[in-house]
């Protein structure tokens, strides 16, 4: 065990702590994308229905995003280091369960448990980073590394998912977390020091149940709509439950002594606009990741490895644009002068991607769309994180960052469910209108591509809406360099 450290003196093991904290963050970010490439293989192996396949992604992102605000409170109650270790162990156990899954339900459950532990792991890692690095210059460097890990993690996950699925099996996209977690747990116990005392906190249980329950009912309602139709009684009941629960969450939030999401966080127009824009952007982005994976593997016949590399141009463009362009222009231009064109560029990328076809070329139909998406999202994400975290009171810094990440994860969950529903419904309609047998929906490539393109048109519309929201609500001026550096870590 590490010896106690004087709170006034720098932790001599702080850079080793950064390695372990970064490793924990990498595992969280990896798990959002590493499974995407492996999903077609897992679906075939476990006989998952087309309408249910999105739950492999949604179960994780919904649990992660829905419990992230609560996770911050747990960190204060249990302690940063303790929470980090608990989160790592729980994440590893859930990953082992997912790797051993014998049915779709078992895999969905394991992914949900991963999301639960990820929701306490993420704020623990970020809190430890803040308390470990007290020198402003060192903290800026540490946040820069942390932000780079978060940014590169998605790209690494796509490539790693392809490599693992291609040369091993999709199950190892789960098992790899166990290896990472064991190293991180041992290192954390030996090297990480929690310099901040625990705080007495009150947990908003009613807000947590209503908020998470409402989101779960909403996402499940979209899934049932894909399989049973929009007018099905179960679908309508789920949507009704979602509305009642989310309205209840809003009422409870306004009356609770220590609400899970304090109203003052969202009423300020710049922060509220940032949350809404991030949710809409993630709604589009996460769903299209799913369709593009199935298009490349199921229609174009790409291997999992080739699919991972096929995503690389978008990831590289996004990272370069965010760090090399947006971060520099943000000190000179108002954020909306970056994020509005960014959302319109991304919408243009989606429109380009609607031109995919069974016999089309990656170089002409997919690659240009990926580059436009990378440019658009790269111009958007950095300004949004900077605006959301700028000028926030110290006591609200953690919940603000968590709220923005929650908007991203929940938006991605709803988007994956909604767009998958649109795709499945469009495919079914195509089969019926062309007088094909119902079974053709699962094998007719033209029908499947039609479904993907209809969902992508919807995604483009949501990105245009995100640009309008940003243009109307966000009126902040150019950001300071300190705010930009802080946003690189806070938005991880």
- Find the structural class using helix and strand composition: mainly alpha
- Biggest β-sheet: count, sense, barrel? none
CATH 2nd-level architecture of the largest domain? Up-down Bundle
Number of domains: 3
The shape is globular
Number of helices: 17
Overall pLDDT level: 81
CATH superfamily of the largest domain, by name, is: MFS general substrate transporter like domains
Task: Determine the N-to-C terminus distance.
Answer: 28 Å
Question: What is the β-strand count?
Answer: 0
Q: Class of the largest domain, according to the CATH hierarchy?
A: Mainly Alpha
Describe this protein's structure.
The protein has three domains: 12-197, Up-down Bundle (Growth Hormone, Chain: A); 204-259; 265-492, Up-down Bundle (Growth Hormone, Chain: A), CATH 1.20.1250. The radius of gyration is 22 Å and the shape is globular. It contains 17 helices and no strands. With 492 residues, it is mainly α.
What is this entry, summarized?
With 492 residues, the protein is mostly helical.
